[in-house]
Amino acid sequence: MNYNHHKQAALAAGMLASVALAGTANAQTSDRLLNALIKKGVLTESEAKDVQAETKMDDGYAPASTGFLIVNSAVKNLELFGDVRLRYEYRTAETASSTSNGSTLAKDRWRYALRFGLKGEAYDNFYYGLRLETSANPRSTWVTFGGEKISSSNNGTTAASAGPFGKNDDTIGVGLAYVGWKPVKTEDFVTDITLGKMVNPLYTTAMTWDPDLTPEGAAERFTYKSAGGNTGKNAGDLELSANFGQFVYQAVTPTGTGKLPADSFLLAWQLGAKYNFDKDISAKIGPSLYNYTSHGAASGFNSTFIGQGSTSGQNSVNSTTGFFSYNQTGINDLLVLDIPAQVDFKIGKYNARVFGDFALNLNGNARATDAYNASLGLAGIQPITGGAQTDQDKAYQVGFAITNGKGDLVPGKNLAKNTWEFRTYWQHIEQYALDVNLIDSDFFEGRANLEGIYAAVAYCPANNVITTVRYGYADRIDKKLGTGGSNLDLPTINPAARYQLIQLDLTLKF
Question: The pTM is what?
Answer without folding.
Answer: 0.83
